[in-house]
Amino acid sequence: MTSITLLTGRVAPLGGQRTSAIDKRPVSGPCLLGPTGFADDEQADLRVHGGPEKAVHHYPRDHYEAWQTDLGLLPLLDAPGAFGENISTLNLTEASVAVGDIFRMGSALVQVSQGRQPCWKLTHRFAIPNMARRVQETGRTGWYYRVLEPGTVAPGDTIVLVDRAAPDWTLHRIWHAFYVDRLNAEELKNIAALEVLAEKWRLYARNRLESGRVEDWTPRLNGSLEGRA
């Protein structure tokens, strides 16, 4: 059980003709959480952000010290929100949280649906080459929730673990299978059958099993450099 910092953001220019709502700011009062996210929150590109399986983004405050070691004392890392997160906490990380974990936040009930796949917008936000790839390679990605029961969440509310559907499948384990031991057939078979995991991730596993190849990450990681979002 740990208290949360709650953040939301509006779509705003990111540079050139691009827009993003990655600049999340702490809120001072309660927010309604519905099936696709917080009422006061927005996403610029609904093809790849938001939706029921990515309704809420959680990023561990625990990682900020490691990023400061890696990148230096950037002002962006002085407070939560650097990674576009809606929820910031201490003492919950990818090593301890598993896909399918169910948490109570305020009066809402949420379930871990998938890890985050970082995109080029992080590179743009930090103005550091390959920042999105660094997030992916470190495994310090954060994760998403689906909303099982809508409700109201306020800053300072506690996040409480209620149930675990697949405790062996930590987010770190799934990250390792996708980005380190990328063609481990046994792990991919198990991931493809993991019902509490977002369908898109299960499809990645099935496609790798069938093709024997890893999908191309370049458009997602380097989109801003290649004119793709």
Mean pLDDT across every amino acid position? 93
Distance between the termini: 37 Å
* Overall number of strands: 14
Order of helices and strands: EEEEEEEEHEEEHHEEEHHHH
Q: What's the tally of helices?
A: 7
Give the overall silhouette.
Answer: globular
Coarse structural class: alpha+beta
Report Rg: 17 Å
**Low-pLDDT sequence parts:** 224-229
Strand proportion: 15-25%
Major beta-sheet overview: 9 strands, mixed
**Order of the strands making up the biggest sheet:** 1-14-10-11-12-8-9-2-5
Helical content band? 25-40%
Domain MOSC: 25-162
InterPro entries: Benzoxazolinone_Detox_Enz (IPR052353), MoCF_Sase_C (IPR005302), Pyrv_Knase-like_insert_dom_sf (IPR011037), Tri_helical_YiiM-like (IPR005163)
Pfam family, one: MOSC
Protein name: MOSC domain-containing protein
Could you walk me through the main structural features you see in this protein, from its secondary elements to its overall organization?
This protein is an alpha+beta fold and 229 residues long. Helix content is 28%, strand content 25%. The protein is built from seven helices and 14 strands. The protein has helices at residues 63-71, 120-126, 131-138, 171-179, 185-192, 199-211, 218-226; strands at 2-3, 5-8, 12-15, 18-20, 25-26, 31-34, 37-38, 56-60, 87-89, 102-105, 108-115, 143-149, 151-153, 158-163. The strands form three sheets. It has a nine-stranded mixed beta sheet. Strands 7-6-13 form a three-stranded antiparallel beta sheet, with no helix packed on it. α2 crosses α7 (218-226) and α5 packs antiparallel against α6. The radius of gyration is 17 Å and the shape is globular. The termini are far apart. Residues 224-229 have low confidence and may be disordered.
